[in-house]
Amino acid sequence: MVNFIQNAIEEDLKNGKYTEGIHTRFPPEPNGYLHVGHAKSICLNFGLAEANGGLCNLRFDDTNPTKEDTEYVDSIQEDIKWLGFSWGDRKFYASDYFDQLYAFAEKLIEKGLAYVDDLSAEEIKAYRGTLTEPGKESPYRNRSVSENLDLFRRMKAGEFADGEKVLRAKIDMASPNMVMRDTVIYRIAHAHHHRTGDKWCIYPMYDFAHPLSDAIEGITHSVCTLEFEEHRPFYDWLLDALDFDPMTRPRQIEFARLNLTNTVTSKRKLRQLVEEGYVRGWDDPRMPTISGLRRRGYTPAAIRSFCEEIGVAKANSLVDVAMLEHAVREDLNEHADRVMAVLHPLKVVLTNYLEDKEEWLRADNNPMHGGARYVPFSRVLYIEQEDFMEEPPKKFFRLKPGGEVRLKHAYIIKCEEVVKDADGNITELRCTVDPDSKTGGKTAGRKIKGTIHWVAAKTALDAEVRLYDYLIETDADGNVPKDFIGALNQHSLETIEHAFVEPSLLHTAAGTHYQFLREGYFVVDPDTTPEHLVFNRVVGLRDSWAK
Ligand code: ATP
Ligand code: MG
Ligand code: MG
């Protein structure tokens, strides 16, 4: 692993820090499902530990009881495992430390470094000042240690209502860093916690809980996204104040969060899509959640290789979603079997092919791995509507009246007649087959420009196929507008109720990948039953990502 964080780790080791080894953590808040941005953080944290022979913890950052739920705890674990990472026996919860954190808070008070403030949230905000103006000290700032201890204990005992008091660090109301202006470290919330129940009615804030949870767990490198750069001085201040040894205590290092074109990567926004019914759930194949990507047919290997490819930067940028698509296309190109499916069927009758004849033709599964299956061929076939044009432009090398085309793995056919209904819609093509044009046949080598896919009507399986487009319409650069709900793509899902697939897919299982020849990569959706096949298109075949 080569990146600036790895360099910093090597520098620390060289300077004699962290002699016990490197220890990272992935700290999700269980308030939603993980998304592709979290995948980057997971790959980075577990990857750094692995690269340095260290350890990586999974820590649920569950200090915000009203928004958190065990449903999310479960999904987060499932997603990390699916991505291929393991936390072993190192699964922790910030809520496990509530007693210790409380004790640390009392210690800060005793040192004169924290005070109970009666100002309201709005007042605190107003007193905080601006970037150009220093803040104003709260009238409660100089309470005595004993008064602060007493009030803090009464906060814990439930004597006050939500919002009535907070505990603040006592630092510097004139600091150019807004976080250092006496940031709030405990608040009152009479709320049920998914793990600690009703034991607590005060909860630590992120700025307080996070550095201390890191220190308690022996984390050495606390890797987080750039928004927290401004919080780093407080991270260090707090650990200093509580006497953690600079040679062993954790340090925070920030990296740029992943932003993708055409994609929202914010749990809050993703939750809105789910709760307001714009998608079918957190695992809707259009969602950039890990569960959505999984259902869409993304593979763990593709997501990991994408994270590797984009690297780790110190400045925010926007990554082209085509890069993510490129990664899954590469993986599936190597691993997915090729099969034939006709999405928009047009009937073809081979007039010179016997009515009850059936042949099984050899078809290779994947040119990279060999392997083959047999597909049935008979008198009535389906081809793709798009592969026939009655009045084609010059360079149309598929089927046209009087023209010839090769059927993949099979024969050359010639279009002799176009049959239409009363409204002039084409309902059927009547074609002849060149009986010697099969592989190994006398005329197999005849030069025919176009090759198309097909399925035999008698044995074809009916299938539902779901084609996806981006969930959100963006500007030309792929930036998601502020009003992302207003920019939802009304055509992000196209359902084909009756496509036809070759019979080899009869006993396929959810999660199996295929390349439908000429149509793209597909995966079997969990909605599939033995009576009703459902496929999702993962990506098309054409790569829009140029390296
Ligand atoms: P969101 O804004 O989507 O709610 P979050 O940062 O609040 O994300 P957490 O559950 O706190 O979500 O995130 C766990 C870890 O994943 C954090 O260390 C966070 O920095 C990291 N992370 C979250 N989003 C991204 C992203 N887009 N790119 C890289 N890392 C991310
Ligand atoms: Mg967070
Ligand atoms: Mg968040």
TrEMBL record:
CDD domains on file: GlnRS_core
Sequence motif: 'KMSKS' region, positions: 264-268
EC class of the enzyme, as a word: ligase
GO molecular function, one term: ATP binding
GO biological process, alphabetically ordered: glutaminyl-tRNA aminoacylation; glutamyl-tRNA aminoacylation
Secretion signal, residue range per the UniProt entry: none
Glutamyl/glutaminyl-tRNA synthetase class Ib catalytic domain span: 22-333
Catalytic activity field: tRNA(Gln) + L-glutamine + ATP = L-glutaminyl-tRNA(Gln) + AMP + diphosphate
Compartments (UniProt record): Cytoplasm
Sequence positions that bind L-glutamine: D61, Y206
Record domain Glutamyl/glutaminyl-tRNA synthetase class Ib anti-codon binding: where: 336-434
Family note: Belongs to the class-I aminoacyl-tRNA synthetase family.
Record note on quaternary structure: Monomer.
Descriptive protein name: Glutamine--tRNA ligase
Species whose genome carries this gene: Selenomonas bovis
UniProt gene name: glnS
